[in-house]
Amino acid sequence: MDDITVHRHVLDELEYAPMIDAAQIGVTVENGIVTLTGHVRNYAEKGIAERVTLRVRGVRGVVERITVRYPDDPAVGDEALAERCARVIEWDARVPRDSVTLKVEKGCVTLQGCVPYYHQKAAVDKALRRLAGVTDIVNLIAVKPPARAAEVKDRILAALRRSARDPDTIRVHVDGDKVTLDGCVDVWRERELAERAAWSAPGVRAVDDRLTLAC
């Protein structure tokens, strides 16, 4: 698919998304790589814009350069924002107690610590992204301990068999705490399922998704 068509489809998809103001987002496309610019009203909208763009056929990757502006809200000081973030993490039952620390600088929240599963690391990010005052999140939370490679691979393949229509087209390689997914899928949803299965395995800290869509 040519870049002009991809550009038009991305604009249409952003316009269709009800939670973002597409008029404030700029889109350029080069060789299937989409660059998003402009500004949004909160950090959560940055993630929405990126996910909406990725689901457009022909998009090979996204470079996200969107900034966050809070035109209608008073500025939130870093100290107050850090207190809000700490309370949200403390109240989230998915996150082990005292496993995460944070630092706030000019609205950018840096997270550090260690949790047993990737979904717990993602839960912290998800819990904070809608807070007023957050302009960016740097998630440095480690996922430990690493599981045995054979166990991780078996869990991923079992999850793929439960979810994907043809998991035999997906190859899984485990090297320590890194999982590499290779092969071919019929639709983008199957690629998301495979990646989610890899991240859900205990001890996984990195996933290299090399899956391609079938022609």
TrEMBL record:
Residues 2-70, 77-145, 148-215 form the BON domain. Transmembrane segments: none annotated. Coiled coil: none annotated. It comes from the Bacteria. This is BON domain-containing protein.
